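mind reviewing both lines:
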Amino acid sequence: MKLPIYLYGHPVLRKISQDITPEYPGLKELLENMYETMYSSDGVGLAAPQIGRNDRIVVIDASPLAEAFPELEGVKLTLINPRLEVLDGQEETRGEGCLSLPGLSENVKRVEHIRLTWVDENFQPHDEEFSGFLARIIQHEYDHLEGKVYIDHISPIRKQLIRAKLNNIVTGKIRCDYPVRYAPRKK
């Protein structure tokens, strides 16, 4: 089932997510719904806060980017309760977009090399190092679990320049090709 994507300005995107346990109700169905939602929205990653849940769950399928980044061919990850460690402080700037910030793309500096520990959908533990564009995707989605969005990494001046676009998202003055949930209106 396609789930609505929660857009910038919704408070759920600013909360720190909580770990889940193997007893998490409906996990298999939730993961299927997250992948379906991500695919139908043309995303390569989706974090649980983006569908209104503050749980430490991320799904990634980087295969659509394999033409530009051949190392991403066949990369599909389900990350539950991930923990990220920076291994190399060297940063690279690249453009990023986000399903929760439709119509925007900004250059963001991110480190190039990370270590990630997580459990998969069967709660099997993993500990792996990632570099390059996959490390960027993981960091982007991990930010959602920490109550952050990618524009938190841009300069204050740049953020001021896109303020009108951000306000249009918050006030529901944009339209998307996928189901969305806008921020609650202030009374």
Summary: The longest helix spans residues 27-40. The beta strands are 5-6, 45-47, 57-61, 76-96, 106-119, 125-131, 180-181.
